[in-house]
Amino acid sequence: MKRLRSVVQASAREFNLEYASLMAFIEVESSGQGFGKDGRLIIQFEPSWFSRLSSNPSFSKWSRNGVEGQSREWEAFEDACRINKRAAMESTSIGLGQILGLHWKRLGYASVQEMWDDAMKGAERQVWQICKFIDSDRILRSAIESKDWHIVASIYNGAGYQKLAEKLGREPYNISLEKAYRRHSV
Fold first, then answer.
1. I need a surface site. Which of 4, 27, 32, 96 has the fewest CB within 10 A?
2. What are the C-alpha distances in Å from 163 to residues 101, 166, 167?
3. What count of other Cβ atoms lies within 10 Å of the Cβ of residue 57?
């Protein structure tokens, strides 16, 4: 965790972001873990995105995926890759910031594969991706700077984030961000 802190501090300075805000974002998205114990990226495969991005997808393991742990996420992702690798990669959130692969162009990569390869290099590159993602959206950056966690949550997780949290019996994303920000502001 000490190493992650120094990486986040350096990136926060580079992008002129507040350390506590950036650290809160990372904590809520991935609990500060960019890689699993097996060395693979922490991922969240999104079946709804895969359905949109792949032509005529056949329903299989990927279609029943939920937030069920990394082994199930990877199983669904690998199943989707057999159907359409690019769509599977674009439909999967990766690393510390859980940035959807679909945003590879926004981050300045030549391909989604290049985004994934860069994230595999380590925490520095994953934190850079988060900062670039924030920096490339004026409204998101402004919401983070003003600590408007509701707007941050709406942009990052969609307008229905509160209803989804209620349905899943979880704390709403904006509340989690606010609490994490307070912890990292000390």
1. 32
2. 25, 5, 6
3. 18
Separation between Cα atoms, residue 14 and residue 124, nearest integer Å: 12
* Mean pLDDT, the chain, whole residue set: 92
Distance CA 90, CA 46 (A): 9
* pLDDT tens-digit series, residues 15-39: 999 999 999 999 999 999 999 999 9
Cβ-in-10-Å burial (0-12, 13-18, 19+) of 135 comes to middle
Name which residue leads in pLDDT, 117 or 60. 117
The closest alpha carbon to 123, from 31, 28, 8, belongs to: 8
* 42-70 mean pLDDT: 76
CB 98 within 8 A of CB 70: no
**78-112 pLDDT tens trace:** 988 998 999 999 999 999 999 999 999 999 999 99
CB 165 within 8 A of CB 173: yes
Distance CA 135, CA 121 (A): 21
